[in-house]
Amino acid sequence: MKQMQSDFIHTQFKRIKKWNKLFLPQSKLRYYPPKFVLRDPVLEGVYQAMSNGMQVAVVVISVSNLREFSSQLEPNQLDDFKNELKIGFKQIFERTQYRDDLLVVHDYYSEGITLFVKINDDNQSVVQIEKMLRDLVPLLEKWSQTHYPYFQHCFDIGYMFIEKTKNRTTHDALHTAQQHAIAMAEKRVQSRYIETLIKMREIITKREITILAQPIIDLATKQIKAWEFLTRGPKGTALENPLQLFSLARQSNLIYDLELLVLEKAFQLIDQAGCSDDVFINFTPITLGNKRFIPALESLLQLYPDISPNQMIFEVTERDSIEGLTFFYENIKQLRKKGFKIAVDDTGAGYSSLHTISELLPDIIKIDRSVIQDIDTSSVKESMLKGLILIAKETRSLVVAEGIEKKEEAEVLLRNDVDLAQGYFYARPGTLEKSRVALG
């Protein structure tokens, strides 16, 4: 009997010893792989992607008329449909250029499916998500028409980026992002959607955004040539993150209002700081193609007569479509007549062609950081850079390289006669006044 008790105690001791490492001090836990902390495969995938510096978005695709459809089916048939929808969308995704971006397709959401998508870019993640959805949804609609030809499905979509903070677990951050995505997808969940809409309108009405400035350096002289203005939302909130701010603005159809506020704040900052350097401001084609944009800009020029249009550069992201925007090209002509310069942003990012450059013949081409990152160890990337420089010479455009983070990258740019550069190697974004003093 005593031997049995002894064996039992010994066995329990071994189990306790085996699991004891889960309760070690935080400083020791770094020696153990994440699976000891995160066991859910979705959580683990999200955790790994974010640990590798990627953005992760929760995308909810809801069948808005599912209840109407379900009335024609037996309960088990409805379950079969949901399962087929999940499998079908995963198969569609895996046949596209986005297959490597998909973490998982899950049926967390009862009236649709939830995708977890990773994106290796924090500047244009919103644009990438929207382009991905524009490409994928028609394929999903075609799939549903093939498998269920007697019923026309209507898909509603919402997305939100997962933002993990020190005081919140990955699970909590994921849950919060999913709730926002559901609210945006299913606008008939009025209370949550209206709450988001009111929050965005309040930010715009109260002008609760901050403009930061990052210097752009002349590589030949090492002097500050210009500044890029960057936007942050209300300090201390989730919307301080520009990803969250601009994704909600797009989904609530307030992107023009938000970007116009950015323009107003930029003019105010230039005037207050007495800045005479060139200033880059990023705008979506949606805003630049809005018929109200030019009259609003003219009002600002009258309000701030000391600001010269010649020092303002409007960046158009190459990843955002300019097709079908009635006033876009006319507005670009008007801007150039007034003396404003046009830049094409994110050149070489991968998902788009050089169509925008050939159409706009921009004054400045900004090369995306995906080309610049580790260019000192990649002959292929340096060849890409040389090709883009040749295009810039054909269009008589200046070249700005973005995302320089180390000396070796800067040296490659210098030997290839790149005009201007910006990135953490030179300075992080900060207030214009402080940045000018620090670098001046």
Automatic annotation (TrEMBL):
Residues 193-440 form the EAL domain. It comes from the Bacteria. Signal peptide: none annotated. Gene3D superfamilies: EAL domain. This is EAL domain-containing protein (Putative c-di-GMP-specific phosphodiesterase class I).
